Amino acid sequence: MPELPQAKARPRGRSASSPSPRQASSKSTTTIALTSPGGSRPQVVDDTAAYARSLRAGRVAVSEIARKLVATSGKNQGNRSSVATVYRILAEDIDGTQ
Fold this sequence. Notes:
Layout: H1 21-35, H2 46-57, H3 62-68, H4 83-95
Helix pairs in contact: 2-4, 3-4
């Protein structure tokens, strides 16, 4: 009867040269942020934000404001803004950030 080849012993755990999952994730996230175009939320045009604030000051409902706002640039050009976007614009006014 012929002898079967011995199985090679596999090292336990990860090798010293491979990065930990956390390091690998951090590195890939950084690489994506550096290489992707526009790695953040699109900015709202100031006149759009001012229009939303003026409508809200006139006691217009947020859902109505969302229907009236239309993206004027970017990949969503021509699309209507969401209610969440309107709330974010109005919250910036309260927080004092823009």
